[in-house]
Every structure is written in C-alpha cells, then in structure tokens.
C-alpha cells in the first residue's frame, strides 16, 4: 500500500523508487501484488507512464490520509525530544531574501533554535522530521495544514545604471533588447513563472516570440543578483526585492506588474500544529 501511495503521488514508479530507496521494478512488483490481492487494476501502464484507474483514484486519497495520520503520530513522539528546536524547510528564494532576517529575530526573541533546511519541493515531512515548510503553492502537500503567508506581484527590476542606458519615458521597456531579459526557470516542479511574454501582453506591447533566449537562470535569488549587477532586467516577486528597492541597488522602472499565480504558504503537519514552538513561530509570522 505504501508503494502504491507513493507511486500515485509521484506519478511514476521511478520517482516512487527514488523516494522509497528501492528500484522502480520493486515498486511495480509491490503494486502488482496489491492489485492481485484486491482483484482490481490500480494503474493503467503505458510504457514508462502510469495513470490511476477509477479504482486507484478511489483508493489513493484514503491511503494518503491514513499515511498522513501515521506520520502525525510519529511527529508527536518526536516533538517531546526537541521542544526548543524548530526544523523549518524553506524554498531557496524565500530563505535569503525574505526569511533569514525573520529567522534571526525569532530565535533571538524566543530562545528557540532553528534548524533551517533550504530545499526545493517536494519535501518529506516524516523522513526529514520537518516541523514547518515555507514555499510557493501547496499542490505537493494536500494532506497537511496550510496557511497563506502572502500574495505577491511580479515586477520588472534592474540596476539603476542599466535603466539609465535602456530607459524609455513610459517605462514600457521598449529600449531593452530581448537578449537583456533575465528569465527565471523555477525547475521541473513548477511552470516557469512569471514570463516576459505575459508581462508584455499586460503592458500592451505585444506577445510576439522573443528574438533571443536572453539570460536564463534556475534560481530566483540568482536572477535578482544578476539584475543588481547590471546583467539585464528581471521579473521578480516584489516582496523579495523590497529591501533592494529601498536601498537603491535595484529600481523598478515600470508600473506594470503581474499577479503571481499562487500564494506563498506555510505548511505543517497536523500533529505539530499545537506544539509550543510551532505556535510561537506561526504567531511571529502573524499566522496564528
């Protein structure tokens, strides 16, 4: 049942094997044994691709909930061993540009030691003993509690010297070559957003294909750093560049923005919701 639950969540025997530490063939064999036991097909197999059957779709959410309850029970036992420590998993972009100053202040005020893990999604709460996850969107964690941190807008940002060279009166970026657009690829777990083509449509300057791939980076912090160094102009979440805009190391030359498609969220297991350290942390973030 565990092999089935992981395979259904990952959508792949290979990814399920990676999570469980076994081969994809072993996962497939375990699922086949479960199917034989139930007398039902749980997956449709097409080469290396799998999809849930009606029986699988009926069974998966119940099993996911059951394993979540087991995880919660384990978390209760663990909580007694580390009452003055909090393990916080943070999306890379949030860690440096938003969370680190808050983490230092929280630890100084409460005396609670923070174990900060900078990680991409998805993470395994149970295996890694994570108390709280701060990330973008909650699609990977349907069985856990989730509280919105904030919504945000994507805005163009660049170094003052770059804008002095490529400025236009209306702030429509018409003098910025496509080769100087910084693109942030969020990785295989997310659609790459925000997109410059979407921004141009919003600005009313057209949605034609770009003449150059521009400067492509796979990390939001790195994209913002490249903009600071004059490499080009980036689309960045406004909250993550607020301090740079205040200091003047970045400017936002246009009033045109794009709403981010998801909220930044705080995710945590049900069993940890009433733990004193977690309650203090949520209160500090104004989520409690």
Characterise the protein shown here.
With 288 residues, the protein is of the alpha/beta class. It is built from eleven helices and twelve strands. The protein has helices spanning 2-10, 13-20, 24-38, 54-79, 92-110, 125-128, 160-166, 196-203, 220-228, 238-247, 276-284; strands at 43-46, 49-52, 85-90, 113-118, 132-136, 145-150, 153-157, 181-184, 215-217, 233-237, 258-259, 264-268. The strands form three sheets. Strands 4-3-5-12-6 form a five-stranded mixed sheet, with helices on one face. Strands 9-8-10-7-11 form a five-stranded mixed sheet. β3, α5 and β4 (113-118) form a beta-alpha-beta unit. α1 packs across α2, α1 (2-10) crosses α4 (54-79) and α5 (92-110) packs across α10. The longest helix has 26 residues, at 54-79. It is globular, with a radius of gyration of 22 Å. The chain starts with a helix and ends with a helix. The mean pLDDT is 88.
The order of strands across the largest sheet is 4-3-5-12-6
Task: Report on the biggest sheet.
Answer: 5 strands, mixed
Q: In DSSP terms, counting alpha (H) and pi (I) runs of 4 or more, how many helices?
A: 11
Rounded to an integer in angstroms, the radius of gyration calculated over CA atoms is 22 Å
Mean pLDDT: 88
Extract low-pLDDT stretches. none
Sum up the overall morphology in one term: globular
Topology pattern, helix = H, strand = E: HHHEEHEHEHEEEHEHEHEHEEH
**Helical content (DSSP H or I, runs of 4+):** 40-55%
How many beta-strand segments?
12
